[in-house]
Write a structure and sequence with these properties.
The chain has 7 helices and 11 strands. It is of the alpha/beta class. It has a single domain, classed as Spore Coat Polysaccharide Biosynthesis Protein SpsA, Chain A. The strands form 3 sheets. Strands 5-4-1-6-10-7-11 form a 7-stranded mixed beta sheet, sandwiched between helices. The chain has a two-stranded antiparallel sheet with strand order 2-3. Helix 5 packs across helix 6.
C-alpha cells in the first residue's frame, strides 16, 4: 500500500488574511480540498493522512465529508516545525505495511494526478524521488551582499512536492539527530544526509506553493485556465 502525508499544519502568516491559508478558498473551495482532490484521482496512492493545526481537525473533518473525500484516513495535529509535522504523519501509520510514502504540501493544489503517479512509481523503483522543475532564471550564490558564485543553471532544479520515499527509508531519515529542527524544510535533504540517492521527476511550473497574497491571484487564474 502507498500512502500520502499531506502537510497542512502551518499558520500561513505570509499569506495574510484572518484564516490559515490552507482553509482559504479558491473559486469557492478551500485550498486543502483542491489539493486532496488531486490525490483522489491518482492511481498510486490508496490512503492519505492530513496533518493540520491542532484546533482545525474538526473543521477539516466536516469539509472532507462534505466534499466526499474517500482516501482521507484521518487528520492529526502537526508540530512546531514542518519536519515535526511530517514525523507525526509517519507515526500515524504505525507499523502497517506501507511501501511508499508521498509527502505533499497542502497548499500545492495544482499538482496533477499524473505527476503524483510518476513520482510514486519512481520511488517504487529507486527508493526516493521528488517532483521538481528546471530552473528558468540564473541563480546567484551571495555572501555578505556580494556574489561569490554563479552556479550552472542547467544543473539547478526547483524542488516541489510530492516527495516520495520507501517508508523504511523515510523513517530512518527522520530518526537522525537534528531531523526535526526548524531549518529542515525538505524531506529529500534528510534522505540525502543518509547518503541515499534521490531521483528527480520533472514537474510543471503550475505546481506552485501558495505562500503570499500574490499567489492567491495567480491561483485563481490557473484554476480558471484549467476549467
Amino acid at each position: 500500500m502507498n500512502v500520502a502525508i499531506i502537510v497542512a499544519a502551518g499558520r500561513g502568516s505570509r499569506a495574510g488574511g484572518a484564516r490559515a491559508k490552507q482553509f482559504r478558498e479558491i473559486s469557492g473551495i478551500p485550498i486543502i480540498i483542491h489539493t486532496l482532490a488531486r490525490f483522489e484521482l491518482c492511481e498510486t496512492v490508496e490512503e492519505a493522512i492530513v496533518v493540520l493545526p491542532a484546533g482545525a481537525r474538526e473543521e477539516f473533518r466536516a469539509l472532507a465529508a462534505r466534499h466526499g473525500l474517500r482516501k482521507v484516513r484521518r487528520a492529526v495535529a502537526g508540530g512546531e516545525t514542518r519536519a515535526e509535522s511530517v514525523w507525526r504523519g509517519l507515526q500515524a501509520f504505525g507499523s502497517e505495511a506501507v511501501e511508499v510514502v508521498a509527502v505533499h504540501d497542502g497548499v500545492r493544489p495544482f499538482v496533477t494526478p499524473a505527476e503524483i503517479d510518476r513520482t510514486v512509481r519512481a520511488a517504487e523503483e529507486h527508493g526516493a524521488a521528488l517532483l521538481a522543475a528546471p530552473a528558468v532564471e540564473t541563480v546567484k550564490e551571495v555572501e555578505g551582499g556580494r556574489v561569490v558564485r554563479t552556479p550552472e543553471r542547467a544543473r539547478l532544479w526547483n524542488a516541489q512536492t510530492p516527495q516520495c520515499f520507501r517508508a523504511e527509508l523515510l523513517r530512518r531519515a527522520y530518526g537522525q539527530p537534528g531531523a526535526l529542527l526548524p531549518d529542515v524544510t525538505d524531506c529529500s535533504a534528510l534522505v540525502e544526509r543518509l547518503g541515499e540517492a534521490v531521483y528527480v521527476v520533472e514537474g510543471g511550473a503550475d505546481n506552485i506553493k501558495i505562500t503570499t497574497p500574490r499567489d492567491f491571484a495567480i491561483a485563481e487564474v490557473l484554476l480558471k485556465s484549467r476549467q
